[in-house]
Amino acid sequence: MSTSTATTKNQHSGPVLDWAAGHGPVTGALSATTGAFALATTGAATGMPPGWALTVGAAGAIGHSIAGLRHRNAGRTVATRAASWLVGAGWTTWAMSTGPLTWTALGSLAAIGAGMGAAAHTTSLYEEAREEEALAAAERQVAAELSADRRAIAAEWVDRIQRVCGITLRVLAVEMWPTGTGFTIDAELPPGGTTYGRIAQESAKLSADARLPHGCTATAGPGIDQGRVLIDVTTANVLEQEVFYPSDYSRLSIHTGIPWGLRTNAEEILAFLREQCALVVGPTGSGKTNMVHTILAGFARAEDVLTFVIDLNAGSAGLPWVRPAFDTNGTPLGGMRPGIDWLAASHKEALALLDALVRIAKHRKTAYQDLMSQANTDLLPISARIPQIMLVVDEGAEILASSDREVRKLADRILEVIRISRAMGIRTVLTALGATGSVLGNLMIRREAKVRVALTGGEKEGMDLGKQFPGSRGLKPEQAPYKGSGFMGTPESEVALFKSWRILPNQIRDIVAATCERHPTLDGPSAKAAGDTYAQRWNPDRTAWMRDGTATPAETAPPATSGHAPAGGGLNLSALRDEPSPADSAVTDAAVRAFMEQIDQQFGTAPEPPNTSERPAAPGLNLSALRAGDSDARQAALQILMDAGPEGTGASAISRTLADGYGTTRQTIVGWLKEWAEKGEAVRVGEGTKTRYVHRNHT
Fold first, then answer.
1. Which of 210, 384, 424, 693 could make a disulfide contact with 682, Cβ separation 3.0–4.6 Å?
2. Residue 488 lies in a domain
3. What is the mean pLDDT of residues 224-233?
4. What is the domain count for the chain?
5. What domain range includes position 110?
6. pLDDT for 467-496, tens place per residue?
7. Which residues contact 443 (CB under 8 A, 6 or more apart)?
C-alpha cells in the first residue's frame, strides 16, 4: 500500500471533528470547566494572583451581557451566561488559593459543569420557543391583515352582486391569484333554485360597476356543487401585452393536453384533443394565423402526434414548418424532419390526403382489434408507436360551408374523417373567419368541435359568440380588443378570456430543429393503408411549388376532378365555372360566335333574352353564361362594393348605379352579394332594410 493511500485511509478513520461549529450545552460546559481547571492549575503552580481570574470572569460576564442585549436575547439567557462566567471565575480564584487538585475542588468543578450544561440547555429551549412564537406572531399579523383585505373584498362584492344582480351571496373564501392579477370568490348561492348563470349573464355590468380596466372581467362559473359559484375577477389587463411562445420545448403528449395560450391569471390553458375536435374562429387581423402556428408548435412538441395540414391559400400555414427541413432541391437537411407530416395546398393534394386518412381510419379498425381487446378499451391506445393524427385545415369551416362543387368534395371527405375516426385517433382542428350561422350551421362541427376558440381582436361583425359558445352569457368582443386575445372554452374549463402566444418565424425554425427527432413515424398498418400517396408526399416533384417562386400549388398539383370535357369531344361549359382553364381563356371571340351559331342551327336555341339575369322560360339550350354582359355587370358590382370602403353598400345602391349601363335587376345583385358573403369575399352587416355588405379588404 502506498504512503498516500495509507495517509488518506487514516485521515478518514475515527470521528470527524468540526472545529468551526458552535458549542452546545454539553460541549460548552465541558469547555468552560476544563478551561477553568487548566487556568487554576497553571496559576497555582506559577503563583498567579487569584484576583486576576475574578477580573477576567467579570469582564466576560459584562461582554456577553452586552452581546446578548444586542442580539435581543431573553433576560434569562443573558443572566445565565453572565452567571456562568462569574461562577467559573469564582471557582478559579478559590482553587488557585486552596489548590485545584483536591477532591473538594474537583467535585465542585464537576457540579458547576453539570449546572452550566443544564442551564444552557434550558435557555436554548426557551430561545427556540421564543423565536418560534415570534415567527408565529408575525404570521398571524400578516394573516390578520390579509384576512382584513379579503373581508373587505368579500363585503364589497356581496354588495355589488346584490345591487346589480339582485342576489345575496354568502362568501366562503377569497383566493388571491399568485400572479397578482386578480382573485377568485367562492360563494354560496341563496336557496330557492338560484344558479350561477344569473351572475354570469351580468358579467359586463359587474365589470363596469367595479370600474375594472379594459380587458378585465368578472366572470361567474360553477362551484364545487350546484349551490356554489366561483367568481373570477381580473384586476390587471394581461391581454394587451404581447406574450411570446415559451422557449421550453419539452415533451408533450396528446393525453396530458396541449397548451394553447394563457388565461387572465397567467395560467396555461390546455386543449385535450384525444377525442375532441377543435374550432378556431378569427377575422382578418385578429391573430388567427399566429394561433395556428401556436397549435402546430404544440403538436410538434408532442411525442405521440403526427400533423397533417390542408391550406388552400398557397399552403402558407404549413410552409414555415416544412421549409427548414429541406434544401433548395427538396433534399432533407442532415436527417431533419419537417415540423408537420404532410402539407396539402391544392385540391388534388388535399383530396389525396383526406382519402388516405379515410383508409387509415378504416384499416385501424380491423388491424388493431387484438390490441384494443388486450387493453380492454374501444379507443385505440395512442402512443409514440401508434401516433394520433391531427388534421389542421386552415379556413376549413368555410370549406364545409361552401357551395362550390369542387370544394364540396373536400367538405364531404372532411366530414367523413370527423365522423368515422374518433376512436381510431384521427381528429381535426378547423379554422374560420367568423362565428356565423353558415360556419356553425353544420351539426357535425357543433357536436364534435368541443374545444372552441374565438379570437375577436375587438371585431364585432361576424362574431356571434352566443352561437359559438351556447349557454355562455355576458361574452362581448369588446372585452378582448387586442390582437391574439379572445375567448376559449373546452369541456374541461369554462369559456373565459385568454391570450394566444406570439410566435415568430425564427422560433418556428428552432422548434423544428429541437423536435425533429421526437416526431413519431406512422405505424405500419396505417402506412400500408395510406399507400404510395403518403410515402411519396415529400417527393421533389410534388413539393416543387414550395421552392419555385414562379409555381403555384394548383400548377404542380391540378385538381383531381377538373370538370373539363374529355379529349374525345362533348360540350365544355367552362363559362359556368368560376375559374376558366387556360384552354378556355385561349378561345377567341370569333370562335365563341361560330360555336353559338352552330348550336343555334342544331338545337334551335331560344332567342336572346333581355338584359336581365333571369333566364328565359322558352325551351332549348341556353348558353347565356358564355355572354360577357352578365360577367361584366358582376365585375362592375364587385368594384362598386370595393369602392364603398369600410362603410359598405347595399343591393339597391348597386342596382341604381348599374341600371343605365347594364340593366341588372336588384334581385340578381342580391344573389351576387349573398354568394360573395358565403365565400368570404364580403361581410354582411345589419338586418332587414339596413342590410349592407363590406368587401373583405375593408374588414
1. 693
2. yes
3. 91
4. 4
5. 25-136
6. 888 877 667 787 788 888 889 999 888 888
7. none
